[in-house]
Specification:
By secondary structure, the protein is α+β, with helices and mostly antiparallel strands. Among the domains are: 119 residues, Uridine Diphospho-n-acetylenolpyruvylglucosamine Reductase, domain 3; 198 residues, Alpha-Beta Plaits (2-Layer Sandwich). Helix content is 34%, strand content 20%. The strands form 5 sheets. The chain has a 5-stranded antiparallel sheet. The longest helix is centred in the C-terminal third of the chain and has 21 residues.
């Protein structure tokens, strides 16, 4: 480990004088890399506070010494927002010790959790009182609720329940001067001025550190059913989505599109994951519906499948016959990102476009990349809300390093097409450090100017997660 700079030494001494019992030290390797290995950190210090007042002291001291503060949650972010790349001038602040569920109120349908609470533990706390916290991600066993809110995470249930932003009623935040905003509201309606909560959600730690949140709970669904169906292609999948919504409305919880490459990767790298179809269809959809007592989810979903077959939108299908089989469907879907990681992508693109343009994105994107080289494309994601993970991989037997000179051209082709179609270069992963140049290129200049003005107004010393977004 490289020695700390004199500024960092002075800051650490002042911090320990103010907080003698603070857990602070040299970060180990887990704090220095993001999951795909695309960015390495060089932090010299990590602090693990136990309370919001401790976070406030850290930030206040950092402001006095002009030391950057990089919030660290579960480390699962895919755009490098949690990585300190200027470790001589930054401290990592890990929220892992602030992991309490402070309150669960099933009458008000509210759960108050500290930022370091693991998403799966938040879900369990809701389940324990017969309620549902619907945010669900492949990384839910390790990601933290503070990071979910800081990045406005999406996941598989956005179609019905919305993003993390829609599941949060209030925040507790340490601001760049060390002051604490006690905004843990329990209100569904509150129209008193600017919506600071929504401004801070999705700001990736650039405006403050989320230390706790009041979260919205929902009644547990007593009836659930899922179906895995083979479809002729993306256009048919989109038509099937419309048909499914006409049948079920808000009872449709999730609608996921997958192509055969994801199944091929699972077969190669994770053979223990049960395949749903043999042989694998080119395109498939996983849908889930849920409702209250008397909904008869399996019966009504079976009727939908019959309708889909009749309209030529479904070529084959499997309806879950038990909760275990339904879970097996989701294990298949949620294992695809890990298989992707094991293969090693040349480029990964988390994009969204208007629903009607999704088939065009796939068709034109494949054609454009075919002109650049021989790639495998794993295109999958949340069709119901227009979000696709459009990931490009080397051909079998090749390494992603062999395609290094193609990365910029691949990204430019995909993002250029997404921009042309009126979409976003970041649907649910955020901007972080890895996409800030892309934001500058494809973002609206007036919006970017407004964002910079807000950043300067709230963080005039520029200490909050420096290098993120801008």
């Amino acid at each position: 480990m490289v020695a700390k700079t004199s500024d960092l030494v002075a800051f650490e001494a002042a911090l320990l004088q103010a907080l003698p019992s603070l857990d602070i030290g040299v970060p180990d390797l887990r704090y220095q890399q993001e999951p795909r290995g695309l960015l390495k950190g060089n932090a010299r210090l990590v602090a693990r506070p136990r309370s919001t007042p401790e976070v406030a002291v850290i930030v206040k001291c950092a402001a006095q010494h002009r030391i950057g503060v990089v919030p660290y949650g579960g480390g699962t972010g895919l755009v490098g927002g949690q990585i300190a790349t200027d470790g001589d001038r930054c401290i990592l602040v890990s929220l892992e010790r602030m992991n309490k569920i402070r309150e669960v109120d099933p009458q008000d349908n509210i759960l108050i959790a500290e930022a370091g609470a693991i998403l799966a533990e938040v879900q369990k706390a809701a389940t324990d009182v017969d309620r549902l916290f619907p945010l669900s991600l492949a990384s839910e066993g390790s990601c933290q609720i503070g990071g979910n809110l800081a990045s406005n995470a999406g996941g598989i249930n956005v179609l019905r329940y919305g993003n993390a932003r829609d599941l949060c009623l209030g925040l507790e935040v340490v601001l760049p001067d060390g002051s604490i905003w006690n905004g843990l509201s329990r209100l569904r309606k509150d129209n008193r001025g600017f919506d600071l909560r929504n401004m801070l959600i999705g700001s990736e730690g650039a405006l403050g550190i989320i230390t706790a949140a009041s979260l919205r709970l929902y009644p547990s669904a007593s009836e659930k059913a899922a179906a895995f169906v083979a479809v002729p292609g993306p256009k048919a999948a989109l038509a099937l989505l419309a048909l499914t919504q006409s049948h079920f409305g808000e009872n449709l919880s999730a609608f996921e599109l997958m192509n055969h490459t994801g199944a091929d990767f699972l077969r190669e790298k994770m053979p223990g994951v049960r395949q749903i179809f043999e042989p694998t269809p080119d395109w498939a959809v996983l849908m889930e519906i849920s409702g209250g007592i008397g909904f008869r989810a399996s019966v009504v979903l079976e009727n939908l499948l019959a309708d889909g077959f009749e309209h030529g939108l479904i070529a084959d299908g499997v309806l879950s016959q038990s909760d275990q089989q339904r879970q097996d469907f989701w294990t298949f879907r949620e294992s695809i990102p890990e298989a992707n990681r094991l293969i090693g992508a040349i480029n990964s693109h988390d994009v969204s476009v208007p629903l009607g343009r999704l088939p065009e994105l796939i068709t034109r994107g494949h054609a454009a990349l075919a002109k650049l080289g021989d790639f495998q494309i794993n295109c999958f994601g949340h069709l119901g809300d227009g979000n696709l993970h459009y990931n490009v991989f080397p051909r079998q037997g090749q390494s992603r390093e062999a395609y290094a000179e193609k990365r910029d051209e691949i990204r430019a082709n995909v993002y250029g097409l997404v921009h042309e179609l009126g979409g976003s270069i970041s649907a649910e992963h955020g901007i972080g450090r890895l996409k800030k140049d892309d934001l500058a290129r494809y973002g609206d200049p007036v919006k970017l100017a407004m964002m910079r003005q807000i950043k300067v107004a709230l963080d005039p010393k520029g200490i909050m997660n420096p290098g993120v977004l801008f």
